[in-house]
Amino acid sequence: MVTKRIAIRNLFISNFVLAAIHAGGSLPALDFLMTLTRLKSNYFVALALLAIAYSFTCAQATADDSQESTALRILLITSGCCHDYDFQAKAMQLALKERGVSAKWDVVDEGGKGTSAQIDLYNNSDWAKGYDLVIHNECFANTTDSDYIRRITDAHREGVNAVVIHCAMHTYRSAEIDDWRQFLGVTSRRHEHKSHYPIDVVEQKHPIMKGFPSGYRSALDELYIIEKVWPNTVVLATSTSEKTGKKHPVIWTNQFDKCRVFGTTYGHSNETFSDKVFLQTLTNGVMWAAGRLE
Questions:
Q1: Are 159 and 129 in contact (CB under 8 A)?
Q2: Is 71-289 in CATH node 3.40.50.880?
Q3: pTM given for the model
Q4: Which of 103, 227, 229, 250 has its CA 20 to 30 A from that of 169?
Q5: Does position 24 have pLDDT exceeding 70, yes or no?
Q6: What residue ranges of the chain are covered by domains with CATH 3.40.50.880?
């Protein structure tokens, strides 16, 4: 009889262990606790606990793998004149994380603090390969080499989506070719003074502008003077010059051949990169440009 009871117990143990493993951590906690209350063997308890621990580990690993496979692969290119790029890079990464966007970031901070530089990254024709999105937050107004610039824009023409922020609009502004400006979706060469500018939403139904508060004023920032809006650009919001009364696009989208572009001229100050409305709009723009917000 003892031998028979042991055999039955071991069979039950085996079935319990297998069930726990296959459950992937989904065995209801109440059922598990009720089962443990019926156990008469410390050996059995130990096996059961090991099985459950193993199943939860497997479940967590599966969840991590799933999150890894859906994470946005983002390349952030930053540096140049006039801004606190380290603060801005960290603020962007934190903003996406706090809003539940899973992302893997590579940050390229090269070229120094001047207005003219050619960074090594762009010397490789496959510089954007493997990324879902490139964020341009660099500021090199006086770089003019046409071949260099076209190595950047050619990658985007082929479908590497992008977000362009603030001084990206003045980057390569001294160049004779228009490729970069066509990619951005706007042409700008100068800005007005810093102020808290009202932002007027033009396309309220666009997913990027969802929930944008009425009557909102920007954090302390510069107003970029937009000389030209390119044909494939959709203006989402404008601000008005305090000097001339003219409205200028401040948030927009652009279609550059196969590439989706989200752009904003705001982004000068740390105050802007601490502003919840700006960060939410930027997050929406990242998701839209990556094809994950429609």
A1: no
A2: yes
A3: 0.78
A4: 103
A5: no
A6: 71-289
